[in-house]
Amino acid sequence: MPNDVEPTLSDLRAMLADQGAPDEVLRLVDAAIDVPDALERLTTAGFVQPVADLAMAFLDAFTPLLEQGCGPLDAELCASEFLGAMRDNADPQDFPDMVAAMIADAEATGEAEALALARSFAVLAPPEVRPVASQAADRLVATGLKDPRWTRTVGKPTVGACFGYADPRGAQEGLALTFSYGRKAHAFVLLIDHDLGGLKDCFVSDQPKAIRAGYVEAAGEHGFPFREYTPEQARAIVADALERDPCPVEPDQVEDVRSNLALLRQRLELLPEAAPTALDTSVHRLKITLRGSKPPIWRRLEVPSATPLVRLHQVVQDAFAWEDYHMWVFDTPDGEYGMPDPELGHGDAATVALADVAKAPKDRIGYLYDFGDAWDHDIVVEDVVQAEPGLAYPRCLTGRRAAPPEDSGGIWGYADLCDVLADPEHPEHADRLEWLDLDSAADFDPAAFDADEVNEYLSRQAKVLVKE
Q1: Which of 144, 178, 252, 419 qualifies as a FRET site for 299, CA 20 to 30 Å off?
Q2: Residue-wise DSSP of 21-79
Q3: How far lies 352's CA from each of 208, 334, 341, 373, 434, in Å?
Q4: Whole-angstrom distance, CA of residue 400 vs CA of residue 290
Q5: Helix (H) or strand (E) holding 82
């Protein structure tokens, strides 16, 4: 078994097959329900050494932690990778028990590697298991084993600067969290994809200055603002991302997230949490109407009051089934906010919250999407309420009529489109159907509205504000 990977049933079978194990051995593994069951079957059949001896093979991954030059970050990275491999194929509910069982098996060996495992797991294992690891480590020390030097500081780096940048519509966000052990600084580099769900990539770099320079350069090349965050702000961003399922795409991203997620969760615990305010749990009930639409096209939504306008932009996109192809801007009493553009006079929509520009019922702001077609929306605050326990926001309550397709020529062009599709004899009827990729005009229903469909889109960024 590879030293740095917790064995799963598929891993065990692959290893045995690579080593030329006989078919009888592979059949025993195939008949097992999990790794312990497979090892018991193989041991009973006389094919492998006892399971207790195999524990030592798993501990080989922790041998580097006993070397003189090993530091606390090295220990954390090793343990995080090991736990990530364990978690990868585990039932989330069973995972803490799996970790606790591994700690017990390791302790039973009485080896120095078991002490390294226990001390690192006491920092990075699931919180409910950490005391188990710490107690096991203390018992091993009582037998005469000596703690590695990194034990004194592991899990206790100093929090440093937090910085990053995001694309103007807030779909993807790069964020770096810096920490230091004495003079040795490191950065946790994150890529958060708000469209796909949450954490897309994360890795540790020992070159935080280079990371900062790269972020500044990349932000400048794309015309995005480079931002400095307080640790409290960074914590809120990371916590929000970790509430959703990770969404790595490329193989290296999958490996990065698996290997570093446990360490990221531990680092999040070190960032101070902002004092809660009433704004954190309040919700704006909005009615958003497409101006000029007859019959009216509108949506009634509940959105967290603290939602930055850049995220409200995405809420509107999802609510009206827009594709986010074009430029956009909010018109507020405090000015216009969108993609920051000094020439157009647009402020940065990521720096202003909904509650900053529309504080109370009857307040209103405008939202313009696609400066050519000019889809102009009127956003009215109907109420400001406290979030209900257990409910995720934003959410759509109700609405009326389908939104116009992208690039259909503005409100008057859309009205013309509806007339053409309603008339099979119109000379442009077939061309419009082809443009919409429809087989029949019956597939186009301007009166259709489905709140469940809207909420499915909104669920990608929805979060519970008040726990049950």
Answers
A1: 419
A2: --HHHHHHHHH-SSHHHHHHHHHHTTSS--HHHHHHHHHGGGGGGGSTT--HHHHHHHH
A3: 28, 10, 15, 26, 41
A4: 11
A5: helix 72-88
pTM for this predicted structure: 0.69
Residue 177 pairs in a beta bridge with 162, 188
Contact, 188 vs 168, CB < 8 A? no
Backbone angles phi, psi at 37, to 5 degrees: -65, -40
Could you tell me whether strands 346-348 and 335-338 are parallel, antiparallel, or unpaired per DSSP bridges? parallel
Give how far Cα 230 sits from Cα of 1, 55, 159, 273, 300, Å.
Answer: 44, 44, 11, 10, 34
Cβ neighbours of residue 36 closer than 8 Å, sequence gap 6 or more: 51
Q: Which residue has the tokens 């409290």?
A: 232
Q: Which residues contact 186 (CB under 8 A, 6 or more apart)?
A: 73, 157, 178, 179, 180, 204, 205, 206, 208
Total residue length of the chain:
468
Contacts of 180 (CB under 8 A, 6+ apart): 157, 158, 160, 186
Tokens of 325: 């192809």
End-to-end CA distance of the chain: 43
Task: Assign 3 a pLDDT band (cuts: 50, 70, 90).
Answer: very low
